[in-house]
From TrEMBL:
It comes from the Eukaryota. Pfam families: EPTP (PF03736), LRR_8 (PF13855). It comes from Salmo trutta (Brown trout). It is found in: Cytoplasm; Secreted; Synapse. Keywords: Cytoplasm, Glycoprotein, Leucine-rich repeat, Repeat, Secreted, Signal, Synapse. GO terms for cellular component: cytoplasm; extracellular space; synapse. This is Leucine-rich glioma-inactivated protein 1. Its main location: cytoplasm. Residues 175-224 form the LRRCT domain. The keyword Transferase does not apply.
Length: 554
């Protein structure tokens, strides 16, 4: 504008024009001054004291949203806000130092310090912080000194310091940190970071209490656990379940007593579910037991009525055909079937629970199965278990009328001889065995009373552990990798899953499963996955997947 005025004077427009220009200049100056007054600089908030470059806030109820632009050091003392919310300092980008001490807030939200690219010192000390968001410190790339000393922190979220690559010093003393799997990441971080971390004692668990986190190593932690997660319910009731492999494929078969069916399922590798494969129609079916002999699949079908039968898979016709009836005079009320090999010969044994029946061993002769040996009569056996004791074949018979009886195979006679019984274990419904580090154990099921775990000591079975039973008809050991479980079913409450504790030398409670009247369990390994199949006598048959869980990732 001044230049225009000078030009008009040179061009001869005279003093009048010059005066007009002078007036315009004055008006423009006044307008500019007025506009500058509209853009006010932030003032020091109430309850805060500000100097040229520092601000101190005391006894305030919330974090102010603006401070003078030249403030690069900000402190909060004895303030009453309960948390630091996300974006609390977006309007103070010049801060180099931020301090909180003796305040009452107990949590820090994610992105609480977003928008502070120049912050180098962050002190959050002597407060009541119990929790910090995993992303609380996101964006603090310039911080070199971080202190969280003397708070109420019991843990820290994994990777809470991620992106803070400029850190030189971290202070965590004065907290009650639990050195459990949730803090395994911190141990790993301490061993890899360039920042100096003060000595931090562990408040727990008992294994590490009093030790310094700085002295721990990642290998100190056992953080892998597991669970049986519900995977696929099957809309039928069943009383037994068996898994088997035939022709490079894996199958499962359920005995359905109310429909009189052996239901076969196969694994669908595309849909990743178990689907119907085939069935055998029968009457009041209680057991469908598979056995593969010389690449031939046989199914022993035990029935309460109408006799029991043996079926064979006809590959050319793609169906099961009945090839043999089982002697109805010996097997009147079958309750369990076991298959086994001795010296390369194939056998199966049926436990008969009738008053007039007889538990009988059958042998394959190349063409069919014939009665090989009848064991004790009139004892109403409910279960039979084949196992090896000291490398020798044995059978254990459970009975409703006597203590479990142990039979040993005689090589010379080629039959089983009674060896001993298990004392003080009357009314055992079923017996199952398992091994831990080459030691032999058995699980004995009682319907009411105490089910028990016993160990073979070289001469007899001795009690290791007692499990309260409330309507239990199955106490099934299951081995998955290095994990040993035992599943105690119940008709009246939840099914209890126990896990073997190597240090204690016994089972500890692991998980509860909600299964109505469970009768049998079977494990299936398919596509590097482990499935537990559970038969239910009064509800849906269930399939669970055994999932590995890394607690250090939680």
């Amino acid at each position: 504008l001044a230049g225009i005025c000078k030009s008009t004077k040179r061009m001869g427009y005279g003093n009048k024009t010059l005066k007009e220009c002078t007036v315009l200049l004055c008006v423009a100056t006044i307008l500019l001054l007025a506009e500058s007054r509209r853009v006010k600089q932030p003032r020091c908030p109430a309850s805060c004291t500000c100097t040229k470059d520092n601000a101190l806030c005391e006894n305030i109820r919330s974090v102010p949203h603006s401070f003078p632009p030249d403030v690069f050091s900000l402190s909060f003392l004895k303030s009453g806000f309960t948390e630091i919310t996300g974006g609390s300092f977006l309007h103070s980008p010049a801060l180099h130092l931020l301090l909180f001490t003796a305040n009452t807030f107990d949590s820090i939200d994610e992105d609480a310090f977003l928008g502070l690219p120049h912050l180098e010192y962050l002190f959050i000390e002597n407060n009541k912080i119990a929790s910090i968001s995993k992303y609380a410190f996101r964006g603090l790339k310039a911080v070199i000194h971080l202190s969280l000393a003397y708070n109420n922190l019991g843990t820290l979220p994994k990777d809470v310091f991620k992106g803070m690559d400029a850190l030189v010093k971290v202070d965590l003393k004065g907290n009650n940190l639990e050195c459990d799997c949730k803090l395994k990441w911190l141990v790993e971080w301490i061993h890899t970071t360039n920042a100096m971390v003060d000595q931090i004692p562990c408040s727990g668990p008992p294994l590490f209490q009093g030790k310094l986190i700085n002295d721990l190593v990642p290998e100190s932690f056992d953080c892998i656990t597991a669970e049986f997660a519900s995977y696929q319910p099957l809309m039928f009731e069943s009383i037994s379940v068996e898994s088997f492999t035939f022709g490079m494929d894996t199958f499962v078969v359920f005995a359905q007593p109310f429909t009189g069916t052996c239901s076969f399922l196969e694994w669908d590798h595309v849909e990743t579910v178990f689907r119907a494969y085939d069935s055998i129609q029968s009457t009041s079916t209680v057991v469908c037991k598979p056995m593969v002999i010389d690449n031939q699949l046989f199914i022993f079908v035990a029935q309460l009525f109408g006799g029991s039968h043996i079926y064979k898979r006809d590959i050319s016709a793609n169906k099961f055909i009945k090839i043999q009836d089982i002697d109805i005079l010996k097997i009147r009320k079958p309750n369990d079937i076991e298959t086994f090999l001795i010296d390369g010969e194939s056998f199966f044994v049926i436990a008969d629970s009738s008053k007039a029946g007889s538990t009988t061993v059958y042998k394959w002769n190349g063409y069919g199965f014939y009665s090989h040996q009848s064991l004790h009569l009139w004892y109403r056996d409910t279960d039979v278990e084949y196992l090896e004791i000291s490398g020798k074949p044995h059978l254990i018979l459970a009975s409703s009328s006597q203590r479990p009886v142990v039979y040993q195979w005689s090589k010379s006679l080629k039959q089983f001889d009674r060896r001993t019984d298990i004392p003080e274990m009357e009314d055992v419904f079923a017996v199952k065995h398992f091994k831990v580090k080459n030691e032999l154990f058995i699980c004995l099921t009682r319907f009411i009373g105490d089910s028990k775990v016993m160990r073979w000591d070289g001469a007899m079975f001795k009690e290791v552990q007692t499990m309260p039973s409330r309507g239990s008809m199955v106490f099934q050991p299951v081995s998955i990798g290095n994990w040993q479980y035992a599943i105690l079913g119940s008709d009246y409450s939840l099914t209890q899953v126990y896990q073997w504790d190597l240090k204690r030398g016994q089972f500890v409670h692991f998980q509860d499963l909600n299964i109505q009247a469970p009768r049998a369990f079977s494990l299936v390994s398919i596509d590097n996955r482990e499935f537990l199949l559970a038969s239910s006598f009064r509800g849906k048959t269930q399939i669970y997947e055994h999932l590995m869980i890394d607690l250090s990732n939680n």
